[in-house]
Amino acid sequence: MSGTAEQMRFCIVKVPYAGVDTENGKTISVDRYREVFETTLETRADAWVSPRTSLEVATEKLIDRYGKEKSHLLNWPTVYIVWFKNTTTAGGNSAKSGNRWYVYVGESQHILDRTVQHITPTKSRTEDIADNQESLHTDDADGEVAADHALSRYLETEKNADQRITDAVSNGADVNQYVIWERHFNKSLTLDVENKLIDYMKSIDRVDCLNGRGNPQDEYYTSTYLDSIVSAAWRKLVSKDEDGIFPPEEQIWQSSLYKVSPFHKLGKEQHEALRDIEKAVFDCLDRWRTPEDTRLILVGGAAGTGKTILLSTLFYELANSLNQDSDENTSESATHEQCVCLLVNNEDQRKVYDDMATKQGLQKQSMQCVSRPTKFINDRSLSVGTSSWDYTKIPGEDCRADVVLIDEAHLLFTQKVQSGIESHLHEILRRAKVVVAVFDPEQIMQRKQWWNPDTLRQLGFGENGYAADVDSADSVLTFTGHYSNAKVNDGKEVIITDSYPVSRINLTCQYRIDASDEVIQWVDALSSRCAQLPRQVPEDTTARIGMVDEDGDNTLTLSCPYEIKVCSSPEEVFSEINKKRDWVLSRQEDAEETKPAKGRKKKTKRAAVKPRDLCRVVATFDWPYDSGDALGTVDLYYDPDYEWHCDRQQYRGAWRRSNYVDGDPEIPEHVKVFRRRWNRAKDILEDEEREKRQTGESWASDESTKNEVGSYFTIQGFDLNYVGVIIGPSVGYDEDRNCIVYRPEMSCDPGVTSSRKDISTSEDLEYFKRECIRKQLGVLTKRGVHGLYLFAVDPVLQKKLQDSMSV
């Protein structure tokens, strides 16, 4: 770690929510509670979570310090967390809910008065909330109605939260509160700390956070301390936690739910994009009269530029502004009431978004407003029989969504598939008033997702897939759909042509890879079109400045120099990734085992956030996989006597893909065999670490996938802490041309090896196949946030990579 550590001075106290006078059993008066509050601070040593040492307690210096700290707590900006046991459900059954907790996170400059309001809510509380939410209103008249609706929903949420706390206090429940003060606090910082803590709480499985996102702030003079302050405060809460509410911060970071949270603080570029998109959306909705008024807003950006977080935040804000509240069960009418829908053509990602939407209260039940594209289209088409739809007709205007958000829009199908849908994007536009699509042409990696070059140009992308001038005028996107169904129109083909105006927003800032620009450029070069490897892997020189609190705890956790290593074998790739896995998990274990205060018992309960390492090995799709039976292995062989011929050079003893049959007795004993499960394959090996598949987990975080190899199918759209990449024989190096080359004939990906009739020439088809492999490599090598470990089967490429590591 470089740089000078900034010191923080914390006050965290635990004060009671006393609603009943224990002496006479009656509801406590406001004045009496004020007395209880202040008396607690003066007389209960265990109320002061930090800082308070045994030496301080024994000296008179504490008296003077206590007076200052008490004054700060009562009169300065603070953040507070209220929690109590969830003992009832709407149906009156407490058995299931008894293991869950209600939590409320807030901020206040007058914590005593705010605590009193929870006991006896007043009208002024609602007025205070409204004053603090001015940013929910837009400067444009078109957005005022939606903003008023968002504010109304927010006020209703706060009112319900206050009432829930009041009822718990009145019923004598054990209601607890932590109040946090730190010398860097000001109004803007406390609002951001509040949001970040809400973000954490909503990512914990056994916690129901009663309030939603507050008022996110832009830059201010103490904004650089936000993450360190939250980390330091959270560590202290974990150390005192006996109820299992506060899991280690590292565990929260690894959860998929947290990674798509809409509460992350946006960067300047993301924030500007968010406001531009919202303005365009409300403008389109205000002007929409007929389907000809439908508009497409395209959000471009390379992998790691924060597109998913931007879309998640946009989804949260628009859903709160536009979606109707409904207590109906899952039905066609209930689904259609969701004016804002989010689509993604990847099942693992859909599950994560679906969980987030339910947890954030954006939908009453699963898949109400989050689904895959085909389901969205079928739900809004005329059914003409079992698994058959007339896509030419939309059954009523109530089937048209106001806003459709599409993540990973490059994954949408562009050719007719089994359902009969010719173009996902065309059909979605026909069923919406405005569509916001996140699109990266560098992640088009198989034939189903091939986009006609004319369509890409209409979307604003240049000849080679690069984004065109983002300041250029809006373009027009034209689709011609061909519809044929034996049950419709006597089986005759129907042709429908539609045109839509396209607005473009492009993101450029890199948020995923935690490294210097030089390191990011080296990783980018691995999958560039003219990939000439730099001579040397650069050292990560990113400055990292830590914050240290008065107890000496360094709040810096997973922030460390980005590491690139070229391994000598596929086994070494796994070895290195296993080391990183153990290190990441040990960080979480260390946080769980924080020493309790003197005289207190060690904690035995822990919040239900599973430890996750997010360290995995992936590979180019160069090994066969049977999707029907879910079978496949990644096999490599090392024969020290074998001469590998490549570009007129001989390499003895290289690892290679072989034609050996599994269990073939002809395999010599001196030949080393590397074999791992492939792409969530069924366990066809005698593996001592065989574990039951866990439902609902993505491949990146499923414990049972740690010993197998994934492909771009299993990892696209997800982050890893550390990634190991086995580069198969479809990627090599041409020494004559001094560049990386791509060999589609060596690929086992059906999406690459099969053809497409609408690609005009064999040269174009071959170019598309090479591009698919290049882009797949780019997706794999850019998954790791903190490190990348490489091994290439092609011996020439492997030597080039090894040479780049030499000084």
What does this structure look like?
Helices cover about 35% and strands about 20% of the residues. It has about 800 residues and is an alpha/beta fold. A 7-stranded mixed β-sheet has the order 10-9-13-14-8-16-15, with helices on both faces. A 6-stranded mixed β-sheet has the order 3-2-6-4-5-7, sandwiched between helices. It is built from 23 helices and 29 strands.
Shape: globular
How confident overall, as mean pLDDT? 78
Distance between the termini: 23 Å
Radius of gyration: 29 Å
The number of distinct β-strands equals 29
**Number of helices, where a helix is a run of at least 4 consecutive DSSP H or I residues:** 23
State the strand order across the main sheet.
Answer: 10-9-13-14-8-16-15
Taking the sheet with the most strands, its summary is:
7 strands, mixed
Structural classification? alpha/beta
Uncertain parts = 1-5, 89-97, 133-143, 326-334, 554-558, 594-608, 645-649, 685-692
Beta-strand proportion: 15-25%
Helix content: 25-40%
